[in-house]
Design goal:
binds zinc ion; single chain; 487 residues; globular; Rossmann fold
Length: 487
């Protein structure tokens, strides 16, 4: 029997089977129905989220003998040859290994020929951001004067690296990380289809470990099936992937929560003894905490506020960074644990004081809360939109008044300002922030002033303070020198 990797065997063959990219499937299906076929597409998004899979289904839809159709037959010669990767009308180029001008030149040569059996010739360039500048220039010429019947699909995990001259000529589709739950469902279908006995939680562990990539999930699943000798058991999946168990994560968090150092050290021994990488352990603890913040479990013994969870996440993130650089991971982990426990001890004291009904001055304002939650806020935005997150990451919480958070944007970043100020983007951010704060808040943006403006505004403030007015401004040379020296 021929062996075929699971992810190839279970690759979606029609739009209705595609997992987690409904927005793209819908737009492309409508394009096919309306006959609005562009000559160039840009598919961008994380690895393993279905870019080349959808590119191939799209090519089949266009070239199927029954087509153009949103539901290609998968049995005609056109469909089968595209599926097997030997269609003369659908050319795939992996730019990671063919990144030079010669490859693009030969691709351009091929664009001169009319389709052989189908209606369109489709050129799929995977990892398109890897092309060299010369190759991009050559490609640009073709995109500027596209021969009829030719379609380019550029797939990339890193759209920022593709020159704007190219992207502006493409219809762009942003693929999203596939939610864990959808990956789990797909793994279940595969396990049933392959007649593999499985324990429910093993699929959950696999889907979580795959971090939004269905292709990775299927590859890990295959490894785990081989490791387990034909079945998927939780214990074996954990061993095979080298991931910490749910119990270890829970015990570790409980140890921090209760301030139980002995228990925490015991978990660390157990984790390291089981061959789990310390960094992977901490990253898993972080992701468990994020889940705790987003989907609070009423029954959980750990009763942290969002601010506490957020503080714990940022301490763990520091720890995760240190684990990358230091040579004695166990020691780093133990010292990190002590730091976490001592940091949370204070929280316990405060809550005891409150229990005794001694009035406690509430220092925490909404703005402090937002600053504490900022990293969690960014993470939640990332789940919604990678592009929005990439832009917001460079901004900062500036002030909070009248139930409105003002987000600061650095001087000169006018693209950021315009993008974030769009109604639809603002609404997404407001929704997320409101749900984190558990109250409705508005968001607005302010761009920092440039250096000259800043001086002027300080002068204005001073003038205001003394009820005066500015009569002249001059900049002092020594001041500037000082500034340069410090900066
Ligand atoms: Zn067909």
């Amino acid at each position: 029997m021929d062996y075929i990797a699971l992810y190839r065997k279970w690759r979606s063959q029609r739009f209705s089977e595609v997992v987690g990219q409904d927005h793209i499937v819908r737009a492309l299906s409508n394009a096919i129905k309306m006959g609005w076929i562009s000559h160039a597409y840009l598919f961008s998004g994380p690895r393993g989220t279905g870019k080349t899979t959808i590119a191939r289904i799209f090519a089949k839809s266009l070239n199927c003998v029954n087509g153009p159709t949103v539901d290609p037959c998968n049995i005609c010669d056109q469909c089968i040859s595209i599926q097997q990767g030997n269609s003369l009308d659908v050319v795939e180029l992996d730019a990671a290994s063919n990144r030079g001008i010669d490859e693009i030149r030969s691709l351009r040569e091929q664009t001169r020929f009319v389709p052989i059996g189908g209606r369109y010739r489709v050129f799929i360039i995977d990892e398109a951001h890897m092309l060299t500048q010369e190759a991009f220039n050559a490609l640009l010429k073709t995109l500027e004067e596209p021969p009829p019947g030719i379609i380019f699909i550029l797939a990339t995990t890193d759209p920022q690296k593709i020159p704007p001259t190219i992207t502006s000529r493409c219809l762009r589709f942003d693929f999203r990380r596939i939610p864990d739950e959808l990956i789990r469902k797909r793994l279940e279908e595969v396990a049933i289809g392959e007649d593999i006995p499985y324990e429910d939680s093993s699929l959950e562990i696999l889907s979580r470990y795959a971090d939004g990539s269905l292709r990775d999930a299927l590859a890990y699943m295959e490894e785990a099936i081989l490791y387990g000798g034909g079945s998927l058991k939780v214990r074996e999946v954990i061993e095979c992937l080298g991931v910490p168990s749910y119990m270890q994560i829970k015990d570790f968090l409980l140890a921090i929560y209760r301030g139980d150092l002995d228990k925490g050290l015991e978990v660390i021994d157990d984790v390291m003894g089981g061959g789990v990488e310390p960094k992977i352990f901490i990253d898993n603890v972080i992701s468990a905490l994020k889940d705790m913040a987003l989907l609070p479990d009423e029954k959980s013994e750990i009763r942290w506020s969002l601010e506490e969870i957020s503080r714990c996440i940022s301490l763990l993130e520091d720890l995760s960074l240190k684990l990358r650089w230091y040579n004695f991971p166990k020691l780093v982990l133990e010292v990190g644990l002590i730091k976490l426990i001592s940091n949370f001890k204070r929280a316990v004291v405060v809550s005891e004081v409150r229990k005794a009904d001694v009035p406690v001055v509430e220092f925490s304002t909404d703005f402090d809360k937002i600053k504490d939650l900022w990293s969690l806020f960014l993470d939640t935005v990332k789940r919604e939109s990678i592009r929005l997150h990439a832009i917001l990451r460079e901004c900062f919480p500036s002030s909070f008044t009248d139930n409105t958070l003002i987000i600061g944007i650095r001087a000169g970043f006018s693209f950021h300002y315009e993008y974030l100020s769009k109604q639809e983007n603002k609404r997404v951010l407001e929704k997320i922030l409101s749900s984190l704060l558990k109250k409705d808040v508005k968001i607005d943006f302010i761009m920092e002033e440039g250096k000259g403006d800043k001086l002027k505004s300080t002068a204005n403030k001073i003038a205001e303070m003394f009820n005066g007015s500015i009569i002249a401004t001059e900049s002092k040379k020594e001041e500037k020198d000082n500034e340069d020296g410090n900066g």
